[in-house]
Design goal:
Blueprint lengths: L2 E9 L2 E7 L3 E7 L8 E6 L2 E7 L4 E7 L10 E5 L2 E7 L27
């Protein structure tokens, strides 16, 4: 199941969408008619920067990514005029119960917190 997080445009002909799929976050942009050399994706400081340029003009935008995506495993490709950037969700670690040790005083008796 996917849910759209954001839509917009960073270029007169490039529609952007960011949405969740079951195991990943997906960013798509229409880059029809542009060469791959005219499209740049950069990931830095939890932000995805998208630059779409034509021979003498360049348009850009950036999006802050949520903490639960793995930016180190992002994949980018262009197919049929659509740029797609995918970032897998981080696996949630099961919550652990943390046990604090009981501290004894120098005489071996337990400290009292309540009277």
């Amino acid at each position: 199941m996917s849910s759209i997080i954001a839509t917009g445009s960073c270029h007169q002909s490039s529609r952007l969408e960011i949405y969740w799929e079951e195991t990943r976050l997906v960013l798509t942009a229409n880059v029809h008619g542009l060469r791959s050399e005219e499209v740049m994706v950069q990931i830095r400081d939890r932000r995805v920067f998208l630059m779409i340029g034509e021979s003498h003009e360049c348009y850009g935008t950036s999006f802050e990514m949520p903490q639960n995506v793995n930016l180190n495993k992002a994949k980018t490709f262009i197919y049929n005029g659509v740029l797609t950037v995918t970032m897998p969700k981080l696996k949630q670690q099961p919550k652990k119960n943390i046990r604090a040790p009981v501290v004894s005083d120098a005489h071996g008796s337990r400290s009292r917190f309540f009277c």
